[in-house]
Amino acid sequence: MLGQTLFEPLKDTISLMSKIVVIGQGSLIAQELIKRYAARGRSVVCTSSSKRAGSIHLDLRSESRWDLNFIKDNDFVVFLAAMSSPDFCEKEFEEAHKINVDGTVRLIRELLDLGSRVLFFSSDTVYGESKDSLSVFDEDSSPKPHGNYAKMKFQVENSFMGEKNFRVFRCSYVFSYEDKFTSMVLKNISNGETIEVFDPMRRNVIWIEDLLDAIEEIETKWKLFTHPICNIVGPDSVSRLELAEWICEVAKSTVPIEIIKPGAKFFLARPRQIYSSTLFLRDLIGRCPLKVKSAINRELQRRI
User: Fold this and answer.
1) Does the N-terminal peptide bond of residue 200 adopt cis geometry, omega within 30 degrees of 0?
2) 219: which residues sit within 8 A by CB, 6+ positions away?
């Protein structure tokens, strides 16, 4: 096929001439991405603010000049580092801003100046809150960031929008066996304890394996996939309550689920619900992302 003929030489050239760099080794996405590339026989250079073994120390709060000698022209940089707690970004705005905006913008500027390709991880919260199920955001929708965390992500996006070596993934809730919420649900199932769930907290959940596929594909298709922003969202709009119920169903658990209604202050930092879709993800990964129930089955059946 014509697409394959054009694509394969580009893929081989990039793979041979560049390396993978992950800024922010500590996240679940980073850890799973490292495993994925290792399985492909590719090593990953990682940075961490906490001086992790095997990583390069890089603190976004530092005002000193970073040693970026490990960065080469055309390297593929996956920028995951951030203060991602919406509550922290509200309560400790200045400290969060140092990390999420000041340090992030300065580092990305240096990375781009060195010729690297930067994939910046943003959030679907930049779109703001959906009024109802008819208020669906795609990549053409106008952002209305909800909370300081979203505003910081959007500020970074705007700092580099239009630069040829800068791309943005706006991620929804990323589902994995090891994500924070699912881990809590499984722990409570194991202990026979009531599962407390904030409601509604509705998002278009994306399976982590689909996200990892998207990262791999954009690396190899960088010159072909020219969209500056891609929503990393799944086909299903799912509340935390529904997600907990579906996990219990797969685990054949009857532990009770208690709905918690957070106060208004809680939702100042995060949207109650975001209905989102994507114009480009299917083209990037070559298929539709998996539905949440199918992802739960694939993640959990082999582990429970």
Assistant:
1) yes
2) 14, 20, 76, 117, 119
Q: Give the residue from 100, 138, 159, 144 showing the smallest Cα distance to 229.
A: 138
Residue 6 has pLDDT above 70, yes or no: no
Question: Computed from CA positions of residues 269, 275, 280, 284, in that sequence, does the dihedral angle turn out positive or negative?
Answer: positive
Q: How many domains does the chain have?
A: 1
Q: Which of 114, 147, 152, 112 is nearest to 129 (CA)?
A: 147
pTM tops 0.85: yes
Domain assignment present for 254: no
- Report yes or no: 213 and 108 within 8 Å, Cβ to Cβ: no
Encoded tokens for 142: 């106008």
How far from chain centre, in Å, is Cα 177?
A: 15
- Contact between 127 and 270 under an 8 Å Cβ cutoff? The reply is no
Beta bridge partners of residue 48, listed in sequence order: 57
Q: Is the residue at 225 inside a domain?
A: yes
Whether 189 is covered by a domain: the verdict is no
The CATH number covering residue 128 comes to 3.40.50.720
- pLDDT above 90 (res 10): no
3-state DSSP helix/strand/coil percent for the chain, to nearest 5?
40, 20, 40
Q: Is the pLDDT of residue 277 over 70?
A: yes
Q: Beta strand 206-207 with 174-175: parallel, antiparallel or unpaired?
A: parallel
Domain membership flag for residue 22:
yes
What's the pLDDT score for residue 200?
87
Its domain, for residue 14, covers 2-174+205-234+276-290
Tokens 């009857």, located at residue: 254
Integer Cα distance of 265 and 251 in angstroms: 34
β-strands 76-79, 20-23: how paired? parallel
Q: Is the pLDDT of residue 245 over 80?
A: yes
Q: What letter represents residue 200's amino acid?
A: P
**DSSP at 282:** H
For residue 11, the model assigns a pLDDT of: 52
Q: Per residue in 122-132, pLDDT tens?
A: 999 999 999 99
